[in-house]
Design a protein that fits this description.
The complex is a heterodimer of chains A (about 325) and B (about 400). By secondary structure, chain A is mainly α. Chain A has 13 helices and two strands. Chain A has a single domain, classed as Orthogonal Bundle (ABC transporter involved in vitamin B12 uptake, BtuC). The longest helix of chain A is centred in the N-terminal third of the chain and has 39 residues. Chain B has a seven-stranded mixed β-sheet with strand order 2-1-3-4-5-14-13, with helices on both faces. Chain B has two domains: about 240 residues, 3-Layer(aba) Sandwich (Rossmann fold); about 140 residues, Response regulator (Rossmann fold, 3-Layer(aba) Sandwich). Classes of the chains: A mainly alpha (about 325), B alpha/beta (about 400). Chains A and B meet through helix 1, helix 5, helix 9, helix 10 and helix 11 of A and strand 7 and helix 7 of B.
């Protein structure tokens, strides 16, 4: 019995909790990508850097709050700074739309033009972040580090394996659920949300029924920027902020959105978890897990690791290729690329 | 008439001499000022420059030449950037020799792309890859740091002495990490120990849970982290502590620095490691000098001072700044025989050499070179106690 419990705790500690945390962070990122795709009909490559920008502003405000001795007790101060980060990122997204995308919209440019424009913006954001906060690692998580720490867990249960749940991991899961619930309520129940869905479904019909496109676009950017900032801050709190990791996040984020079906909010969430769990499950070494479960004579000698952890990024690529080959619309029947 | 000519020529030679005395010799200091060891390099560079200042102030080098250090960022991880940085030092600054580079990868690139074609003498204070022992160098390359092959042996002996039978090993995925990881594994297994897993990690990632998961699955009494203290190495340790995968960490030279316990906190207490260092009196003398100059003494600061001192003493012995001539003198000065020279006594060394005598440069790190021009290797042992990196012995 103890062996079974130990095996489950081990799996939870190294696979389930990290993958669920990473999955919810990816899902929030993918929701932003998918929303922009649904309304504006292009893949926004600047989304990763938007996350970095929002996180940077949040970090700066966090430092300012900390210097004034303002905190949230056991919770990270960054939560208090988050609204400021969101506000700044929304302004950035709206200015980008005003100065870059609006022109292309007025000429009814093809999606690929938008995509290239977003690539350009990505480099601009990238530069801004590095000029303001620098390329180095920044740690801004404060408050209690653990909800459950390994030693507490061992002392409490008497098991030989420990389980750790960091505050930032718990926070990622909770905030992701709250944000997703709010977003779905907004899209399904409010008038604005409905008009956005109508616009995404059939632009011409929506225009005929009196929906103002400018307003829909404006709200889409505001929501995408909010999602990007929240996802970025959660990721940064959990794993530390360095601008380059946000650039690297772009690939798994897009993989998540495409796997789920571009343009489908539900798909983005499912895709986030599919990508995160595949990355972790495929690179985990199951030796100790099986040693607990199997009788001693069958205990494995090797590591039982399908892929070296160095190939973690390749998993996103492979999933992307497989989905595009086998089911180009993604799990939830999104738009074709 | 003859008298007149003699006077004039004497005058001319004095003038020429004084013109020569006003000469400035530029020495490059190429280290990774940005990148994975950026917290170590400022102290290392300042130590090298301390030796240059000492020589400059003595006014004895080649009849009173001044020494001017010129810094360049060799980045540690970007071979192309390292090459370009040192190429610039040679072509536009006109440096006569180089202290550096710091990381093995950068050193290899600079040696092959700049030093060899240009005939530039370089002494690295901290490149420890075993591959640099066998590299084609035309005799232009020396290092005041020992090869990691030696570090692996010492580390393996310490593991056995502490009663550790099995260890997991992770190394940063570059020349330094692979070389060191290999030498630790080979040496430990030769002594009867077991390496349960040897896995590489990439620097600059946000999340090391997956890497730590694999290491934890393999298990072991301790985790040997052959990485960099400001990058992946720190990420691995903090993730391993969070998940309770390992309690004790063994820290090779790239992980020794006060910034690591500062960043990790009390979880690192009891972890131990080593970095090149010695208990020769030169070490303490150097530390006094450095502290007076406002330099934080740390890993490789001693070796950096010695690298600069060896270059300048070599120039004095060769009576030239030409790399081809200086390189022949470096071994002779480092290993003696002759008058022992300690830190702060560079003026004495210069004087003896100018008078045609012999010296044995001991310096800050008890310099003794073995073929092909690298330090034989003595190590300082460290242990983290109460969040401080304590020196607990020498080997």
């Amino acid at each position: 019995m103890d062996d079974l419990l130990n095996a489950l705790v081990l799996l939870a500690n190294f696979v389930l909790i990290p993958a669920a945390t990473y999955g919810s962070q990816l899902a929030l990122g993918a929701l932003g990508v998918t929303l922009v795709y649904a309304i504006l009909r292009f893949s926004n490559f600047a989304h990763g850097e938007t996350m970095a920008f929002g996180t940077m502003v949040t970090i700066l405000v966090t430092w300012w709050l900390q210097s004034h001795g303002i905190g949230l007790g056991p919770l990270p101060t960054a939560l208090l700074a988050l609204p400021a980060g969101i506000a700044a990122t929304v302004v950035l997204a709206l200015l980008s739309d005003r100065w870059v995308y609006r022109y292309h919209r007025s000429c009814r440019a093809r999606p690929v033009i938008f995509l290239i424009a977003s690539l350009g913006l990505m480099f601009v954001y990238n530069g801004i972040v590095r000029i303001v906060i620098g390329p180095a690692d920044q740690r801004f998580a404060d408050g209690e580090r653990f909800i459950v720490s390994v030693s507490d867990f061992r002392a409490f249960t008497g098991l030989s394996e420990g389980l750790a749940l960091r505050t930032t991991q718990g926070l990622s899961l909770v905030v992701a659920v709250v944000i997703v619930a709010a977003l779905f309520w907004f899209l399904e129940r409010t008038r604005t949300g409905k008009s956005m869905r109508a616009y995404s479904d059939n632009e011409d019909l929506a225009l005929l029924s009196g929906i103002r496109p400018d307003r829909v676009v404006l709200i889409a950017w505001a929501i995408a920027a909010t999602l990007a900032t929240v996802a970025g801050v959660l990721y940064g709190l959990d794993k530390g902020f360095s601008p380059i990791t946000y650039f690297h996040l772009l690939l798994p984020t897009f993989a998540a959105a495409i796997v789920g079906g571009l343009g489908s909010p539900l798909g983005a969430i499912a895709g986030g978890f599919v990508v995160a769990f595949s990355e972790v499950l495929l690179t985990y070494a199951y030796k100790r897990f099986l040693t607990y479960l199997l009788p001693e004579s069958l205990a494995p000698d090797g590591l039982l690791q399908l892929l070296s952890t160095n190939y973690k990024f390749a998993v996103s690529f492979v999933i992307l290729v497989l989905v595009l080959l086998l089911r180009p619309t993604g799990i939830f029947k999104g738009k074709m690329l | 008439m003859i008298k007149k000519i003699l006077t004039v020529s004497a005058l001319a030679s004095t003038l020429a001499f004084s013109a020569h005395a006003a000469d400035t010799i530029k020495i490059g200091v190429g280290m990774g000022f940005t990148g994975p060891i950026e917290s170590l390099t400022p102290g290392m560079a300042a130590s090298a420059e301390l030796a240059m200042k000492e020589v400059s102030d003595s006014g004895l080098l080649l009849g009173g030449a001044k020494v001017q250090p010129v810094r360049a960022d060799t980045t540690c991880i970007d071979a192309a950037a390292a090459t370009a940085a040192v190429e610039r030092l040679v072509s536009s600054e006109g440096i006569k020799a180089l202290v550096g580079a710091a990381c093995s990868g950068a050193t290899t690139a600079v040696l092959q792309n700049v030093a060899l074609p240009r005939g530039l003498l370089m002494i690295s204070p901290s490149s420890t890859s075993p591959a640099l022992s066998t590299i084609e160098d035309n005799g232009l390359f020396f290092r005041t740091a020992p090869s990691d092959a030696r570090q692996g042996e010492v580390l393996a002996e310490l593991l056995i002495e502490r009663g550790i039978k099995s260890a997991a090993l992770t190394y940063t995925n570059n020349d330094y990490g692979k070389g060191l990881g290999n030498s630790i594994q080979t040496a430990f297994q030769k002594l009867g120990g077991k390496i349960t897993i040897s896995a590489s990690h990439e620097d600059g990632k946000g999340d090391y849970t997956a890497e730590v998961g694999a290491l934890a699955a393999a298990g072991g009494d301790v985790l040997v982290v052959a990485g960099y203290l400001d990058r992946g190495g720190r990420g691995i340790i903090s993730s391993a502590l969070d998940t309770g995968a390992f309690d004790t960490f063994v820290l090779p030279d790239g992980m020794i620095g006060q910034s690591l316990p500062d960043a990790i906190g009390k979880g690192l207490n009891g972890s131990w490691g080593l970095a090149p260092g010695s208990d020769s009196p030169g070490g303490a003398q150097f530390e006094a000098l450095a502290t007076k100059a406002g330099i934080t003494v740390g890993p490789y600061t001693h070796q950096s001072y010695d690298a600069a001192a060896l270059i300048l003493l070599g120039m004095q012995a060769a009576k030239s700044t030409d790399g081809a001539q200086v390189k022949a003198k470096v071994m002779e000065i480092a290993n003696g025989p002759g008058e022992a020279i300690y830190p702060g006594e560079l003026a004495k060394g210069l004087k003896i050499l100018a008078d045609g005598g012999k010296i044995n440069y001991i310096g800050a790190s008890a310099v003794r070179f073995v073929d092909p021009g690298e330090s034989a290797g003595s190590y300082a042992l460290y242990e983290v106690r109460n969040g401080k990196l304590d020196t607990i012995g020498y080997r």
